[in-house]
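Researcher: Let's run the pair from yesterday's discussion. Sequence first, then tokens, for each.
Model: Starting with the first of the pair.
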Amino acid sequence: MRNRYRLEIRMDAAVACLAACVSGLSVPAFAGATITTFDPPGAVLTHPEGINASGVITGYYEDGSQTYHGFVRNSDGTIISFDVTESINTAASAINRSGTIAGCYIDPNSVYHGYLRAPDGTFTIFDTKGSCPVSINSHGDVAGILHKRDGTSHGYERKSNGKMAVFDPPGSTFTQTASINDEGSIAGNFVDGSGESHGFLRTSDGVITAFDPSGSQDTEPAGINRYGEIAGSFQIPGNIAAYDGFLRAGDGTFTIFGVPGDNATIPFAMNDKQDTAGACSDDSSPAHGFLRTSAGKISVFDPPGSIETIPLSVNNDRTIVGYYTADGFNFHGFVRTR
């Protein structure tokens, strides 16, 4: 699965590395853009996940004892770390316009729980065990993944009033949500009985529509904007290392695109202006970051010294956040501004 929202997998992965002192470094990325790198104090792995309209960033980091903590990076660069009470690992996955954060934590019994963190630092814990939020809209509605004890995974929507609806597209053996917009529509992917991944759109009335670009294999949406436009990627049949990006318009039509010269183009986020951010690579190099504007212009970028760059979120100002590594072991956050 290419979907970046599998927080529980990343939290369980042990990354043996030493902290690098790169916090606060700013350099020109390309004409008109600046990249600032950062790490929370004590971090050996930094993983920014989301940025809101005010430029506030959230994510999680691993410390030297292999414990995960959530963090907030304000627009002035100050960083606040946080943990849910009684958690052994805390991760943050998304932040909305008001600064409310959605994420998950692991309790001492290794059970996952969802939470919301208000701007004043107070927490709301989800009653349903096994829930892992992945996205939150401006109203406080959350989309997430529910892992049950029988090993199955399902999509869910949690309204701001706490009401939760669990769902699966017809024929799904595994359901994974990716994003929820302000209209309450959710995009994600599901796996059918043959092991093939398909995209889905669930509208606010609960109606689910499955979709795949023509001639595609393993479709995985990554984001949906306020207009119901969906960005994602799919595998090109016959080449397990080749991926193209797609944009699905509100009327269901597709635009397929790829970064010139690369055989893998994987969007991870889209804003309301239809700008997409993601990663691209060719056969001989690790991933680079890219920005594709609504006009179709593509720019490729990397933080200084990066050998792999993974952008994960973009706001309406085209400010992009993600992580990168310069040595394959130490991972650091970056924010790219115009």
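Model: Moving on to the second of the pair.
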Amino acid sequence: MQITIHGEELQLLAEHAIYLPKRKTLWVADALLGKPAHTKTGNWMAPDMVDADIIRLSNLLKEYDVEKLVFVGHLFYYAYADKRTSPGEWLATQELEVHWINGHEHDAEPMHYAKFNLTIHDGCYTDGPFVFMNEYDAATAQQFEDKFIISANANPAYEDDKTGQLLPCFYFTDGHAILPSFGNMKGLKLMQRQNPTDRFYPINATAVLNPIVSV
């Protein structure tokens, strides 16, 4: 699904990410890298366990011409203490410009991420006509009236009128967008339309569906 925001082409991907071909940039929200390989007891599984979300992300990097990777929201499942953690080691091997817009105290310990090829932004990060923030805040957004806000930490959903099924979605207003969780985030948040022009882009197992513009 291709849309245009502030003159920029955005490709909404069924893998719960957005690719900008002009900027060769991939946006990923709430990646939660490491969660599939983490046990309920808090202990890591065997080192050769493969993180399914890293495989998905690797496949996207191979499929698209990506030079910059922007993470917003929860990047890792928890603040790592083990230097062998595969998600961080995987990031360190990527020949990419990697940014993380972080808004969670339990994630914000630079000592854990010094070797992970990350530029960490506490608060907001501006890239061209876009401003990234961990969670949308109207007061903060007013500081960037000429920009388009990208946020996370909500895992937005649209309710299908016919089936009642909740589908993850990209949620766009005239001034900001909330991205779906890339990782295995629990629960979906049903989004309520604030304005007639708000757009839902539902995602099924294989594709991003046509936008739901009004009801």
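Researcher: Give me one sentence on the second I can quote.
Model: The CA atoms of residues 159 and 165 lie 6 Å apart.
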